[in-house]
Amino acid sequence: MSGPINAQTRLDIKGTDLGVEFDDVLEIVIGVLVCNLTDMGSFYQAGQSVSCMTGISNELISGRIGITVRSGESTKTGESTAKFFYRDPMISGFSPTEGQVAGGTEITITGMYFNTGRNIEASFGEAPCNSL
């Protein structure tokens, strides 16, 4: 799980005992950063899944996802075994370096973390890539 630095990503959390209603989800954090629950009620499935918008980090960090849920008169907390990573895609190269002005050249882009975030897009200047 990962999201870009200096941006927000909708994080979907699946599990059990995640409250009877959306208001039972009191807090979600990624390490020390709060994951925003505002306007996320429409993604909630009682007891099964909840979504939040990640807080903004200005640096490469990672952390476990923690959740606090109201359970009757008390609260319960849980923590993921997996970590969420704040990182940006890194391009190390691409080929070929030239192509037709009309487009249509297949380009191979190499690098790391291309699966960061929810919406994966590539472009050259203003020209979007048609297939990824």
Automatic annotation (TrEMBL):
TM regions (residue ranges): none
Lineage, highest ranks first: Eukaryota, Metazoa, Echinodermata, Eleutherozoa, Echinozoa
Gene Ontology MF terms in the entry: semaphorin receptor activity
InterPro entries: Ig-like_fold, Ig_E-set, IPT_dom, Plexin
Identification of the protein by name: IPT/TIG domain-containing protein
SUPFAM superfamilies: E set domains (SSF81296)
Domain of life, per lineage: Eukaryota
Domain IPT/TIG: 89-130
Organism: Strongylocentrotus purpuratus
